[in-house]
Design brief:
- Strands 1, 2, 6, 7, 8, 11, 12, 13, 14 and 15 form a ten-stranded mixed sheet that branches.
- Helices cover about 35% and strands about 20% of the residues.
- The chain is of the alpha+beta class.
- The radius of gyration is 32 Å and the shape is elongated.
- The termini are far apart.
């Protein structure tokens, strides 16, 4: 039995506008750089990634982005009484694929939980998520630190959940409009350990996560459209301290630059706060992109505020070893594996490897070329210079690039064998992209680009040139070695530009240096 009492609406409300750190969001005065240097930044990121499934996480509604408002709905995503969720298997497969790519442990028994909260775009009044049994634990992401060295950022967990609908506050002068197309779209939430120490590391971590989800094709990674969103847990502590300071959560940032800026701003704000002898309030803050600052949104809720409990409408789901093995067998080569292969096995510069692994299909294209040539540096140059600029200029995706990787390998072979010069190969490339099935050698012949590398054909030309300039030959023999270039020019002219410069130089030197 409880006594009747009058509900006081003020109970539990937190007077945000007078939070002790309110004034700290004003520009600090008089705090010198060496004061900032005493502190260490601690950041953990929570990344929500929308999965590219066809239907929603717990219903058969379309999960496609866009569509007329409230058309991708059903009793389940509208939260109507009696509607029951059904697990979309693809959601779990994608989460497992990601977990395997990030070297996580995959959980055998998966339970789902209700996370209860009220929001207008959450008609059920709860989100179906995973609480005590995330599908993935542990695992890590390798990023570059501020000095360009590899750094391991460990993961706490990855769990599966559903997105909420979208509230639009700017479409109508009086009302907030609600679109529930997004309600129930599957998400994975990737939670890192607080291993991130600088805003640059946070940026690099997000870049890496985006690269991986795109590579696996489980999320389009488009931050502007909200398919990848980031919350940052930020705190500061004196260097050398072993306990963490009070942390502040900055919510729902949809650009990597914003995440970086929010972290920089928070670090400064929190240090100023501590330096003034004030305590940092654990709260949730908003990032304002226009000013580059954060502001208090609400006092930080803790897990128990959500009254998690097991979802009674979804039975636990068991993931077998066979299923995991099956998913593993579909795993494409990962960017970091390819990066290692390119730098360590193929001895390509890190810069090349970075560019080549940036896009999955470009990496696969490159992989195809190097099946057919041993000159991997030439293959890398063709990718990075000619192919990429052609794609950029024409706004094309490599998937729609019709020239076969074997054709590129053929062109490399033509250059390496001395049949065409590299500038001639570029002319051939211009023709090939117009006519992707053509043979490079045939084009070279048609355009009269075949180099003369037969020394018996070049030798008479060299003799002719040397006979024409006896005085210059004397000067050369007396030490004016720079004249070689002039002789070369004459030989090339005599050959109509078709002599292989390498062979011509050799013959010239042989004849002049006796
Ligand atoms: Mn979440």
């Amino acid at each position: 039995m409880v006594k009747e009492y009058i509900n006081n609406p003020k109970i539990g409300l937190y007077p945000i506008s007078f939070s002790p750190c309110f004034f700290a969001s004003l520009p600090p005065y008089g705090i010198m750089q060496d004061v900032y240097d005493k502190y260490e930044l601690i950041v953990g990121l929570e990344v929500h990634a929308q999965l590219l499934t066809q239907s929603k996480a717990y219903s058969a509604d379309s999960a496609e982005y866009g569509g007329n408002p409230n058309t991708h709905t059903s009793p389940t995503s509208l939260g109507l009484p009696g509607a029951l969720p059904v697990m979309n298997e693809k959601t779990l497969e994608y989460a497992i694929l990601l977990g395997l790519a990030l070297k996580c442990d995959i959980r055998y028994e998966n339970q789902f939980a209700r996370k209860n909260y009220f929001y207008a775009d959450l008609p059920k009044g709860y989100q179906i998520t995973q609480d005590k049994t995330p599908i993935c634990n542990n695992g890590y992401v390798i990023i570059k630190d501020d000095n360009g060295k590899d750094k391991k950022i460990e993961l706490e967990r990855i769990h599966v959940e559903e997105d909420a609908g979208k509230s639009m506050h700017d479409q109508d002068p009086y009302d907030t409009l609600i679109d529930l197309n997004r309600a129930g779209v599957p998400l994975v939430e990737i939670v890192s350990k607080p291993d991130i120490r600088t805003s640059k590391e946070a940026y690099n971590y997000l870049t890496e996560i985006r690269k991986i989800v795109r590579h696996l094709e489980i999320c389009d990674g488009n931050m502007e459209e909200g398919s990848l969103r980031c919350d940052a847990n930020i705190s500061v502590r004196l260097k050398g301290a072993t306990t963490y300071g009070k942390r502040v959560e900055v919510k729902n940032m949809n650009s990597m630059r914003h995440v970086q800026k929010a972290i920089e701003h928070e670090m400064k704000r929190q240090i100023d706060c501590v330096e003034r002898g004030e305590t940092i309030v654990q709260e949730t803050r908003n990032f304002d992109a226009a000013t580059g600052t954060t502001s208090a949104m609400r006092s930080k809720e803790s897990a128990h505020d959500y009254r998690y409990f097991p979802e009674p409408d979804l039975p636990p789901i068991f993931i077998t070893q066979e299923k995991i093995a099956e998913i593993k067998s579909t795993m494409p080569p990962l960017p970091d594996e390819l990066f290692r292969k390119y730098t360590q096995e193929l001895k390509l510069p890190e810069y090349d490897a970075y560019i080549l692994t940036d896009n999955k299909y470009e990496a696969l294209y490159f992989e195809e070329i190097i099946q057919h040539t041993t000159n991997v540096k030439a293959a890398s140059n063709w990718m990075m210079v000619h192919i990429k600029s052609y794609l950029n200029e024409n706004g094309l995706d490599i998937k729609r690039f019709e020239v076969k990787p074997t054709t590129i390998a053929d062109m490399i072979a033509l250059i390496d064998s001395g049949k065409v010069s590299s500038s001639a190969a570029q002319q051939i490339f211009v023709e090939i992209v117009k006519n992707p099935t053509a043979d490079p050698l045939t084009i070279a012949q048609q355009l009269n680009l075949i180099q003369e590398s037969d020394s018996s054909a070049i030798e008479p030309l060299v003799d002719e040139v040397l006979a024409k300039f006896p005085a210059k030959v004397m000067e050369y023999k007396e030490g004016k070695k720079g004249l070689l270039g002039m002789f070369m020019g004459e030989v090339m002219k005599a050959s109509g530009g078709k002599a292989d410069p390498k062979v011509a130089t050799e013959i010239l030197k042989k004849k002049l240096d006796v």
